[in-house]
Write a structure and sequence with these properties.
about 140 residues; mainly alpha
Length: about 140
C-alpha cells in the first residue's frame, strides 16, 4: 500500500469512528455489550493503543507510553470497573493526536523506508516491511 492510499484509508476510518461513536458519554462508554465483548471505552482505547504501536513501528512518536496502552492491548480483559478505564474525553484527545501524528509520520516516509524490513509485525510476517505494515494497520484500524 502506498502512503497516499494508506492516508485516505486512515482518514475514512477516522470519519467512521467519529460518526458512529458520536456524543457518547463516558458512562455510556463503559456499558458492556451482551452476551460478551468489550465496552466502547476499551474499543476506542484499543484503537489508540494500536495506533501508538504503529507509530513506534514506523518511527513516529506514540501518544501513550506502553504502560498506558496495556489495559487496551489485544486480548485485554474487559473493563469491569470505571476506575479501570481512562476517561473517554482523554481517549478521544489521544485518538485525535494519533491521527495527526500518523499523517505527519507516514507523509514523511521515503521509498527506501517503506521497502525496509519492519522491526515488528503484528501478523508475525517474517518479511514485513514498513510498506506492508501500512496495509496490515489500515485493515486493523478499519
Amino acid at each position: 500500500m502506498n502512503p497516499d492510499s494508506f492516508l485516505l484509508q486512515i482518514h475514512v476510518s477516522y470519519q467512521v469512528v467519529k460518526a458512529n461513536i458520536g456524543e457518547i458519554t463516558h458512562e455510556e462508554s463503559l456499558k458492556q455489550p451482551a452476551p460478551a465483548g468489550n465496552c466502547l471505552n476499551w474499543v476506542l482505547g484499543h484503537l489508540v493503543a494500536t495506533r501508538c504501536d504503529f507509530l513506534r513501528g514506523v518511527g513516529g512518536e506514540p501518544v501513550w507510553g506502553k504502560a498506558e496502552c496495556a489495559p487496551y492491548a489485544r486480548h485485554g480483559e474487559p473493563i469491569q470497573s470505571p476506575s479501570d478505564a481512562k476517561p473517554l474525553e482523554a481517549i478521544w484527545k489521544a485518538y485525535e493526536e494519533t491521527q495527526q501524528r500518523i499523517k505527519k509520520t507516514v507523509s514523511a516516509l521515503t521509498p527506501s523506508q517503506l521497502a525496509a524490513k519492519s522491526e515488528f509485525s503484528p501478523s508475525n510476517n517474517p518479511n514485513e516491511t514498513t510498506g506492508s505494515l501500512l496495509t496490515v494497520f489500515a485493515f486493523h484500524d478499519a
